[in-house]
Design goal:
By secondary structure, this protein is mainly alpha-helical. It has a single domain, classed as Growth Hormone, Chain: A. The longest helix is centred in the first third of the chain and has 35 residues. The C terminus is likely disordered.
Length: 407
């Protein structure tokens, strides 16, 4: 069997990145349309906070299970079925009559999207060599931010054509464009061998869920992800509402601004992933790069001092760049220490850290905004929250995985 070339490996990794793009478009459309949807369906800020948590609750539960499933069936087949299912659920958002049905659909979407990150992470880990994986994970995290850049202008444009229901339907169709691209990129036998049953992986022992969940490596990575997840998640859930309330923009105008912060995440993820790959030293976590990323992410605390929408977008872009750096560095460091047979499973558990924090934080944000009428306290709290968890990650030396790491 011919080995997979560097060009071929990166082609598959980029296609996996686009899976995250489709996933983010479908989950983030509600955030962009939130001012109109909540007004049309008479949903309060607190209720909207619970809607954003509904997706996160389902995602929290589904990602570890999806990772376990992907480790067994492989990303090549698992991702295709998942994209088709969650695209159908996303399209059904166009039919919602009220809060209850919308809440149920957010739960369903979170479950259906569970395999997106574990499957994409498994792909990057299996097709790229160890010295390129940090760079690969940096590219992978740009998938979400590419979706974040696309969905505000796209949803706003579709909204201008036919309202928020048409916008939901239009964005849900994006997944159908990805499926033939993925099938083409993974058509070769050498790619199928890597993604379906790579040598030494298919029969390798897999640790039980609780053993993996309690391992110091998992806890260490979990703490770092929980530190930055609220700051990064603020844009998706509350960016449009923030602009409408604080800067008095119209629903159709928010797309002109909300594309910039996801670009910041792109820059942070790619730049810090590339730097980590260049500085790659076996067993040595990239502490200096991580510290810089943490400070950038904490800059969301400057949001109350912004007097124009563009100033706010610059602050959020800086914070997102730091978040992209942290996501990339933590994921590459963590999965590089995991058994190859459990990469998707471990990645799924790690993705739950973000969901767990958003489940807790988004309803609290809604309550604060309902009570105070502004986002100042929210921004201060999000910025302050970043620091303790990141300090813990920096000071906590990574323990070796037992019974041993597999390449």
């Amino acid at each position: 069997m011919t080995d997979l070339s560097r060009r071929g490996a990166w082609m598959v990794a980029i296609c996996a990145t686009l899976t995250m793009t489709v996933s983010y478009i479908d989950r983030a459309t509600l955030g962009v349309l939130a001012p109109s949807v909540t007004k049309a369906l008479d949903i309060s800020e607190t209720e909207y906070g619970w809607l954003t948590s509904a997706f996160s609750i389902a995602y929290l539960v589904s990602t570890p299970l999806a990772g376990w499933w992907i480790d067994r069936v492989g990303a090549r087949r698992g991702l295709v079925g998942s994209v088709l299912v969650w695209s159908a659920v996303a399209a059904m958002h166009a039919l919602v009559p009220g809060f209850g049905v919308l809440f149920a659909l957010r739960i369903a979407l979170g479950i259906a999207e569970g395999p997106s990150f574990p499957g994409s992470a498994q792909t990057v880990q299996r097709v790229l060599p160890p010295n390129e994986r940090a760079r690969g994970f940096g590219v992978l995290f740009t998938g979400s931010s590419i979706g974040g850049m696309m969905v505000p202008p796209l949803a706003a444009f579709l909204y201008s054509l036919g309202g928020w229901r048409i916008a939901f339907l239009g964005t849900a169709l994006i997944g159908l464009l990805w499926v033939p691209l993925w099938l083409w990129a993974t058509r070769r036998a050498v790619v199928r061998a890597r993604l379906d049953a790579p040598p030494g992986v298919i029969n390798a022992p897999r640790p039980p869920f609780m053993v993996l969940a309690r391992h110091p490596l998992m806890v260490r990575a979990f703490v770092a992800m929980m530190a930055v997840a609220p700051a990064v998640g603020f844009l998706q859930a509350w960016g449009a509402k923030y602009l409408v309330r604080t800067h008095e923009l119209l629903q159709e105008d928010v797309g002109a601004y909300l594309w910039l912060p996801p670009l910041g995440l792109d820059v942070g993820a790619i730049l810090f992933g590339d730097l980590a790959s260049r500085q790659h030293r076996e067993g040595a976590p990239p502490r200096a790069l991580f510290a810089i990323g943490a400070l950038l992410c904490a800059s969301i605390g400057l949001l109350p001092y912004c007097t124009t929408p563009w100033q706010a977008m610059i602050v959020l872009s800086t914070s997102m760049a730091g978040g992209g750096a942290i996501y990339t560095l933590v994921t590459a460091d963590f999965l590089g220490r995991m058994p190859a047979s459990s990469v998707s499973f471990a990645g799924g558990i790690l993705a739950g850290a973000q969901s767990l924090m958003l489940i807790i934080v988004n309803p609290l944000i809604g309550k604060v905004v309902d009570a105070q009428g502004h986002y100042d306290s929210v921004a201060y709290a999000l910025g302050a929250w970043v620091i303790p968890g990141c300090v813990i990650w920096l000071l906590w030396p990574p323990a070796p995985y037992v019974p041993g790491r597999q390449a």
